[in-house]
Recover the amino acids of this structure.
């Protein structure tokens, strides 16, 4: 599924990341652990093609994304990678449904409101589709951002501290949602966290400080 | 969902700010549209009415006043000129081929009654729509606008008021003589539409009567007047001039080009007369109007400048609040160039809104001005016509939009998603 080979990244001449070799199979779930500053976010950004590593290679499904140019990576990311951040970052001027349609538009896919609505129903947010982000709770917003990430059926779902700003109930809900949605798309799931509430749900763990 | 609807949503989010910027730009554009419309209509109007009139001869005074009075019928006459002298000028076949006599001094409901002959309506190409041309003393033909506004019809009679504008307090009508409507002109879209035409002897009749009243003449209903009233109009250029006067003479065709130079010199030697060149005076007039217009135009451009700055600041500030939105859009697959275009589009949309508001304001203002001011009314100002130049103005507006949004757009282009997202 994805493979990382002799990956290093320097930030202000300091090595923040060094992975000799790491391979994850299709539909596997991995938890990425490590103290802050251990390069979790940097690794996620490199995998998502948002950032290029100082050296090393990254394959995602046979595509060597480290060799793509920025526009090609933008396109690849839009079609193949779903991203979830600590904060939901929905577009505040658009309602929930429009936020999802936006993801289809920016990926250059067909704008399918029925599909968006169906996904929202699936996530228990059906009646919130016309609501604006400031009318939703943090938990609801994060669920919408999960919906946005899985909408285009990515092959790789990446979440960076998705539960850090949520209460216990919402956190459990979001983790459950990530697992089930990743399964539905047959996507590989990678979650960076230091949240104890998340750890109990996963078996595969990659600890960055261990190297 | 597309860039346009995205921009629209962002514009809607900041309604108050949007409103302010659009209003600023709209006012600036409005001032310029107003000036453009007024200038073009005034010029068209002035040049149209003056067309074909080579020279105006009037009593000594300001040449501009002579033109404004005898050609545009806005100002008062500088005085009257003796018919005998006019006959000499017109009779000089070396110089003058065609000339139109004018006698002014009376009005009916603010519409000027102009004593002349049939050459005036011929000159403006006005055809009789109803009835016939005036042939006898005290018969009148109405300009199309006069007929429309006063409701006078063929066969109606009216009494004139002395002076060129109706004055409620000073009003003394020429009670004894009534004008009779015998014809109505088609619209000629010239100054003629707002005039009442009659034969010059009608004027002499009305005013002689008036003088005699002042002199307390005993014999008011004398038979010669009665006689005159049924008389056919005499040939002005061959009749005995006696001490009769007219107000002005429009020379529409010279016998030869040299006359343009020699005739004014000849006229200035006759003590009471003055020759005025319409082309020259109109150019001078526009030069003077032009100065005021430039000042107003500068004001309009200053407003547009402020609008550019204000829109730029608004977009720039919005950008700060929108950094995450931009980063998220990038993470969802939007290219840098797409974000660049989105910001540019937003600036252009704002500018176009302002532009259309400006066009609307400008046209409405001209229309209102045309209906309010009486002088403006005589000039037929209307906000219902559009100029080609307004398209250029919209192009300028687009430039304004680009100018205001190019820096924010560039900043969007340069957004580093990784850094923005890493900050949480």
């Amino acid at each position: 599924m994805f493979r990382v080979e002799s990956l290093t990244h320097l930030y202000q001449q300091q090595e923040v990341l060094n992975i000799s070799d790491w391979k994850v199979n299709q539909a596997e779930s991995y938890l990425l652990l490590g103290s802050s500053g251990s390069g979790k976010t940097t690794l996620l950004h490199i995998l998502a093609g948002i950032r290029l590593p100082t050296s090393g290679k990254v394959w995602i499904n046979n595509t060597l994304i480290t060799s793509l140019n920025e526009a090609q990576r933008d396109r690849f990311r839009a079609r193949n990678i779903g991203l979830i951040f600590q904060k939901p970052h929905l577009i505040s001027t658009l309602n929930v449904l429009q936020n999802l349609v936006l993801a289809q538009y920016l990926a250059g896919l067909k704008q399918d409101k029925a599909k968006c609505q169906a996904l929202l129903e699936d996530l228990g947010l059906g009646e919130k589709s016309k609501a604006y982000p400031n009318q939703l709770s943090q938990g609801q917003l994060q669920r919408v951002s999960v919906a946005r990430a899985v909408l285009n059926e990515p092959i790789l779902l990446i979440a960076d501290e998705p539960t850090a700003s949520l209460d216990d109930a919402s956190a459990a809900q979001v983790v459950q949602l990530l697992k089930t949605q990743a399964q539905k798309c047959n996507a590989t799931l990678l979650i960076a966290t230091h949240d104890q509430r998340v750890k109990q749900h996963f078996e595969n763990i990659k600890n960055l400080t261990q190297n | 969902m597309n860039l346009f609807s995205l921009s629209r949503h962002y514009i809607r989010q900041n309604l108050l700010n949007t409103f302010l910027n659009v209003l600023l730009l709209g006012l600036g554009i409005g001032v310029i549209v107003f000036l453009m419309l007024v200038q073009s209509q005034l010029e068209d109007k002035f040049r149209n009415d003056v067309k074909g009139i080579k020279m105006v001869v009037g009593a000594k005074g300001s040449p501009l006043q002579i033109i404004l009075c005898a050609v545009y019928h806005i100002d008062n006459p500088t005085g009257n000129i003796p018919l005998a002298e006019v006959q000499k000028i017109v009779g000089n076949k070396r110089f003058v081929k065609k000339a139109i006599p004018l006698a002014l001094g009376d009005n009916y409901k603010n519409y000027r009654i102009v004593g002349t002959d049939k050459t005036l309506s011929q000159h403006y190409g006005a055809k009789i729509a109803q009835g016939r041309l005036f042939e006898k003393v005290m018969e009148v033909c109405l300009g199309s606008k006069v007929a429309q506004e006063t409701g006078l019809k063929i066969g109606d009679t009216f009494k004139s008021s002395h002076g060129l504008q109706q004055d409620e307090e000073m009003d003394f009508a020429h009670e004894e003589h009534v004008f009779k409507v015998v014809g109505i002109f088609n619209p000629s879209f010239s100054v003629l539409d707002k005039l009442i035409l009659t034969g010059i002897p009608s004027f002499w009749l009305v005013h002689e009567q008036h003088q005699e009243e002042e002199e307390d003449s005993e014999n008011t209903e004398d038979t010669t007047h009665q006689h005159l009233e049924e008389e056919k109009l005499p040939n002005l250029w061959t009749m005995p001039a006696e001490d009769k006067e007219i107000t002005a003479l429009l020379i529409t065709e010279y016998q030869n080009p040299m006359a343009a130079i020699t005739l004014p010199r000849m006229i200035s030697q006759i003590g009471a007369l003055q020759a005025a060149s319409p082309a020259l005076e109109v150019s001078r007039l526009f030069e003077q109007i032009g100065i005021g217009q430039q000042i107003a135009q500068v004001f309009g451009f200053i407003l547009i400048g402020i609008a550019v700055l204000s829109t730029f600041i608004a977009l720039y500030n919005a950008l700060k609040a929108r950094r995450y939105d931009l980063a998220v859009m990038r993470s969802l697959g939007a290219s840098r160039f797409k974000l660049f275009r989105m910001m540019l589009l937003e600036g252009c949309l704002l500018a176009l809104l302002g532009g259309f508001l400006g066009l609307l304001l400008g046209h409405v203002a001209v229309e209102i001005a045309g209906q309010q001011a009486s002088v403006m009314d005589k000039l037929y100002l209307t906000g219902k016509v559009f100029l080609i130049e307004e398209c250029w103005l919209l192009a300028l507006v687009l430039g304004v939009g680009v100018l205001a949004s190019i820096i924010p757009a560039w900043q969007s282009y340069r957004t580093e998603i990784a850094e923005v997202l890493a900050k949480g």
In short: The longest helix of chain A spans residues 168-185. Strands of chain A lie at 2-11, 14-24, 29-33, 55-60, 63-64, 81-84, 156-160, 188-192, 205-207. Chain A touches chain B at residues 41-42, 45, 48, 50-51, 70-71, 74-75, 77-79, 83, 85-87, 89-94, 98, 101-108, 111, 148, 160 (CB under 8 Å). The first strand of chain A starts at residue 2 and ends at 11.
